DNA sequence: ATGAAAGCGCTAACAT
DNA sequence: ATGTTAGCGCTTTCAT
């Protein structure tokens, strides 16, 4: 509560600064700064004096000022299409954990799935001068991508494997997911297929790739239900209900395989099937995507495509952190792959 | 790529600044600043010149500098116990939406459910000088709460109704949830109860309040399964399995009511019941919490306690924004309440 | 190991 | 409506 003498043109007094701490500790401000940023560069005795002064004053460093002066914000922007999509939450969690541990903080950006305000979001983010940016998916407009390249900030794109990454990249091939799922299901004996999807860009690519592979195998008549919005249990139920309207599997027909672009949709399909007394896997097969934490515990257990979201996030954070420590590092591209998990929901007997 | 002449003691050149834009537009830096912060205070003609200069240079404002100079960061820290808990994602989404719209950005803080590193997280957050802080739940240690009060930053606590809020508050009474659930279920005719909970502090308070109400009604023998960690479908299945080991409801016994502190656990209970052929609601009743988006679409549909997470988030953001506009505003406390939703899973016939 | 000077990029406050 | 000056709180750079 010491009343400071305002300078002739000074502003109203603010909180406790590093100068206050320095004065109390009887050292130069620069020494306090050293204590904060590299304690080992300060003598033990001095360190104690400063420590005491900090506790006594309740000083909290002002990182706005330190970021400005040092040209390092220790901020990393993480851009998600949607905070409510549980597919990304493991990734997000892992990213945040690693970054915090390394002394960085996460600035959140939510892009939505449409590209309208993308440029604006990007400017808002860049205005904070983050030391790095982690994108979920990739930016949609070329203008945005160019701006990001121009900003010369390290960027990691995730959850995808594109042709021309902005910088670093960690993901997997959605095309390969689609075709491998098709091949596996064909090998299991399925011949009748339906598709349940929501309209997110990567999910649609998986779906298209699946359809292509099926067509190549001579299966062209695949019923499709594509919804707008996020995948929900409700959409899954509705989707199956719609599919069954013109194709109700009887004991005589071979089982129908419903491929979903998300475990959540698939869970809804299982639920609707149970509600209608349609036995899975005997007359209906279900395939999900994501291997989310519930997939192995649905009834019956859900076959799906496993993506290790936590590993993906950890990898993205590590790539970025390594670059921040060694700016010369080349831009890596990491394919973390995926694996097909066969559980009860695809175990029809042919 | 214009090589700037470094001052005698200058640092290596950085990006394009407001001064560069001003020079190109032929105005003073302050005029550019005005254009950015209050375009209406600048003449149309000048505005166009500046606009052009900005586009031409690709200038992006440096908010680190502007925050430092203006003592307003336009940053709001949002603290979550865990990013992967879907209970909070609607709230988080709503908060982020409102804040972005109002020109604020979200700085994420993940506290975990234990209080060990709470103080450190708090300092990390305060060091960015956020204009406000939104907490999910409340801080655990008195030291943290004191430090936050001392920082004189607007704070909104959410998802709870505590006795001594730090500042603003929006939530509901977990105690009342517990007792009202008990009373409702008793009125429905249930007399045999079991409890399934995870060890989050608010969930445990709901549970305790439920148990108290049941005891008052003369029902003291309530089997309990309390797990550590986040609520998952798997935990719900395991929980029911464990409960059934020493209490398998027969057609002769009155139905067993399993009250869960989370819809996700309840969903697991429904799943395990289906897997074991135990009919819900005839022999087993299930009650959830949260009314998450799947609750009305499980089979059978799940009775639960509805909390409007999106409304809660919007309310929290609005309280904060109002305070930021009118600092004299008193600290409001908002009880957003809850409602009991009766669906199929509690429709036993007595 | 510590200090002094200069300046990061912007805006508040006071002109005009 | 626009310009001038000082300074936000810190760190870089150079000196001791």
Describe the structure.
The structure is a homodimer of 350-residue chains. A six-stranded parallel beta sheet of chain A has the order 2-1-3-4-5-11, with helices on one face. In chain A, strands 7-6-8-9 form a four-stranded parallel beta sheet, sandwiched between helices. In chain A, strands 10-12 form a two-stranded antiparallel ribbon. The longest helix of chain A is centred in the C-terminal third of the chain and has 17 residues, at 309-325. Chain A has 350 residues and is α/β, with parallel strands linked by helices. The model of chain A is unreliable at 1-10 (pLDDT under 50). Chain A is built from twelve helices and twelve strands. In chain A, helix 11 links the parallel strand 8 and strand 9 (284-287). In chain A, helix 1 packs across helix 3 (44-57). Chain A is elongated and about 90 Å long. Chains A and B meet through helix 4, helix 5, strand 2, helix 6 and helix 7 of A and helix 4, helix 5, strand 2, helix 6 and helix 7 of B. Chain A binds a DNA duplex (16 and 16 nucleotides) through helix 2 and helix 4.
What are its keywords?
DNA-binding, disordered N terminus, 350 residues, 12 strands, 4-stranded parallel sheet, alpha/beta, 6-stranded parallel sheet, homodimer
**What Rg of chain A do the Cα atoms give?**
27 Å
String of helices and strands of chain A: HHHHEHEHEHEEHEHEHEHEEHEE
- Strand fraction of chain A equals 15-25%
As residue ranges, the low-confidence spans of chain A are 1-10
Strand order, sheet with most strands of chain A: 2-1-3-4-5-11
- Quote the distance from N terminus to C terminus of chain A: 82 Å
Mean pLDDT of chain A: 93
Taking the sheet with the most strands of chain A, its summary is: 6 strands, parallel
**Largest interface, per-chain counts?**
A-B, 55 and 56 residues
Oligomerization state of this entry?
A: homodimer
Number of H- or I-type helical stretches of chain A: 12
Percentage of residues in helical conformation of chain A: 40-55%
Number of strand segments of chain A = 12
Indicate the overall shape of chain A: elongated
Which structural class is indicated by helix and strand composition of chain A? alpha/beta
